[in-house]
Amino acid sequence: MDSAGARGPAAHPPLKVALLGSGTVGSQVYRLLTEQSADLQARAGAPLQVVGVAVDDPAKQREIPVAPGLLTTDGLELVTRPDVDIVIELIGGIEPARTLLLAALKAGKSVITANKALVAADRAVLHRTAQEAGVDLYYEGAVAGAIPLLRPLRESLAGDDVRRVIGIVNGTTNFILDRMDTSGADFSAALAEAQALGYAEADPTADVAGFDAAAKAAILASIAFHTEVTADDVYREGILSVTSADIASARSLGLVVKLLAICERCNGGITARVHPAMIPRVHPLAAVRDAYNAVFVEAESAGRLMFYGAGAGGQPTASAVLGDTVAVARNLQAGLRGPDSSTYAGLPLVPIGDAITRYYVQLDVADRPGVLAPVADAFAQNGVSIKDVRQEGRGDDANLIIMTHSAREAALAKTVSVLSAMEAVRNVDSVMRVEGVEGE
Ligand code: NDP
Ligand code: HSE
């Protein structure tokens, strides 16, 4: 061994890290950067030194205390400091995160964020700014927490054509639906349990109304299909309308209700949608319990791939953030930028009315002769093929459950509006998409 080899490579000077936010995720990133500094240095090739932590309230009692002198409320001053190399944003929301990240990128700092709301709204401008400044922009933690998903989509599958991405990307709603399924709890009781366990926030709107999953779907669709997709492009329904009766009915049919994010190629374009759907209990996504996430990727050559793990939480998400941080540190020392995700394909967004799937329709109808024929006719007239019909008597009424073959969303919507206007149909109790059924 020559003398240089015996001494090892010369130590790189520390890379200076500015941390924005020290909440659920930020505090874990700070802890791991501090406690695992030697290992991270060995892997990154340089010490990663936190030189400032921006928070909202520096007087707050913190479970993971920040070293004296590092706390600041002036995020803008921190991210533009000449000595800072890397900015990690874990504040969340659009502002002030957007202003701070654009300022950091323009000042030549590489940026890591887990902020799905911001990335889903402003991915194009953030990437353009990073490119112009010659720095990195990574956000693995923004989708499905700890699960390595964006890097495999962007890099490992760069030689393949992704056909479909379907998954459970919101832990809170998966927990709620799982509890409704396994314990028979209604929505409010399951939500209260999710809040007590710290999964759901005091204001659970972003999760239960599907905004969080829609932001993640936009990021997944953008990377998978090389096309710019924002959260506003994603069709969104949350789980607020899912009832205990829907869950019980799904169970009786061998199905389970999940909130799915689905991004797929369709009619020469792509659809991106988030909504509750029934899936067969034998489908691998049906086995995703509690607050876990899982994403199926279907690609031309690779076939089906499944990614599974903790989709939220401070420490799991910190794992993804630190993976990005080490990648950025390596790039900085090599004088390189990491790979950008391309948007060369520019595929059109297909309206939800053109999406194709199967449906579950539950009707309350008068139980008398001649009712089934016009009900079936409403489906036939709109080109929706019925796969299965079940009927259960309820005194003078009957409960009809109709499962369809694949149909256009717009055709099903038209069918439902015809059914709703029929004298014999007392009520359309429930309409839900059915996904993950093989064949016809
Ligand atoms: P928290 O609400 O727990 O933490 C937010 C942090 O930002 C706090 O430390 C807060 O300060 C600080 N902050 C708020 N306003 C400002 C401001 N104006 N300037 C500087 N700091 C400010 O959020 P999370 O840790 O839960 O989430 C952070 C990001 O990670 C979000 O984008 C979220 O979507 C994403 N994410 C979160 C996951 C999770 O499981 N929690 C999972 C995956 C992604 P103070 O401490 O003083 O209140
Ligand atoms: N609220 C989100 C969830 C956190 O429940 O999955 C992770 O983005």
Summarize the structure.
The chain is an alpha/beta fold and 440 residues long. It has 15 helices and 17 strands. The protein has three domains: 163 residues, Rossmann fold (3-Layer(aba) Sandwich); 160 residues, Dihydrodipicolinate Reductase, domain 2 (2-Layer Sandwich), CATH 3.30.360; 80 residues, ACT domain (Alpha-Beta Plaits).
Written overview of the protein:
With 440 residues, the chain is of the alpha/beta class. The protein has 3 domains: 3-145 and 315-334, NAD(P)-binding Rossmann-like Domain (Rossmann fold, 3-Layer(aba) Sandwich); 150-309, Dihydrodipicolinate Reductase, domain 2; 355-434, ACT domain (Alpha-Beta Plaits), CATH 3.30.70. It is built from 15 helices and 17 strands. The strands form 2 sheets. Strands 7, 8, 9, 10, 11, 12, 13, 14, 15, 16 and 17 form an 11-stranded mixed beta sheet that branches. A 6-stranded parallel beta sheet has the order 3-2-1-4-5-6, sandwiched between helices. Helix 6 links the parallel strand 5 and strand 6 (137-138). Helix 2 crosses helix 13 (314-334). The termini are far apart. Mean pLDDT is 94; it is low at 1-8. NADPH dihydro-nicotinamide-adenine-dinucleotide phosphate (NDP) is lined by residues 20-26, 54-57, 60, 75, 90-92, 96, 114-116, 141, 145, 312-313, 317.
